[in-house]
Amino acid sequence: MLAGDSRLFSFEFFPAKTDEGERALWRAIRELEPLRPAFVSVTYGAGGSTRDRTVAMTARIANDTTLVPLAHLTAVDHSVAELRRIVGQFADAGVRNVLALRGDPPGDPQAEWVRHTEGLEYAEDLVRLVKRSGEFCVGVAAFPEKHPRSPDLDADVERFVAKCRAGADFAITQMFFRAEDYLRLRDRVAATGCDVPIIPGVMPVTNVAQIERMAALSGAAFPAEIAAELHAVQDDPAAVRELGVSIASAMCDRLLAEGAPGLHFITLNRSTATREIWSRLGLQTARS
Q: For residue range 255-264, what is the model confidence (pLDDT) as tens digits?
């Protein structure tokens, strides 16, 4: 699919922790399945906290749906032997697409990152490990506003290009709220001669407090003008969701007009906002 001319539209889910959450998750998956996304990704908790659920969920998607799963995998708190074993589990489940991430420290994403004594130091090392483990398509993360641990934008682009040269086939960005941040990242990467597709990660705002908390943890900027609009209606959940969908739709429209290779919707295991944006943009099914 990456080699074709079609844009890639995809959705992100996370493993549920309760029976009720599991039902809501699979309801969202079934509601989004008819849109035929290029792939759906399944996140992997800090320190491997959802490892078993991630493996089980990606296997179920591969076996019980028409969807193509992309499994997240993080290096944090894992030995090389453990990582190889997990990659083997993905392969046994029929999962051949992996998003290779260094990962955040468990408990506090802003804490000092400490390499496992028998583990890997960087995401580029994990890319090499996965690539050497079989016929995998490997993606990596990109950061429109730079990674919180990068000293500056130039250093961040240098680290990103290193992941691509290690064998990454594509990238998905962290969530962002200004199209200009994505476009500047794309242009900086292209200037190095790197042509790996960078897919924008989009999270529609449906809950103001939740999105502000997530932005703070990830280091993403939550623009003051957007915050002001949302805070003006924050006591009306329906109005917040409507405004959030409108803001995200406008950004997506701009990104596609500027040549983005697709869109990756971070769903938070809900389908309504994503389906509304899909409808507003007039998107067609991503796979024939």
A: 999 999 999 9
SS3 letters for the chain? CCCCCCCEEEEEECCCCCHHHHHHHHHHHHHHHHHCCCEEEECCCHHHCCHHHHHHHHHHHHHHCCCCEEEEEECCCCCHHHHHHHHHHHHHCCCCEEEEECCCCCCCCCCCCCCCCCCCCCHHHHHHHHHHCCCCEEEEEECCCCCCCCCCHHHHHHHHHHHHHCCCCEEEEEECCCHHHHHHHHHHHHHCCCCCCEEEEECCCCCHHHHHHHHHHHCCCCCHHHHHHHHCCCCCHHHHHHHHHHHHHHHHHHHHHCCCCEEEEECCCCCHHHHHHHHHHCCCCCCC
Q: What is the pTM (predicted TM-score) of this model?
A: 0.92
One of 12, 124, 145, 276 is an active-site residue; which one? 12
Residue 230, pLDDT > 50, answer: yes
12 is catalytic: yes
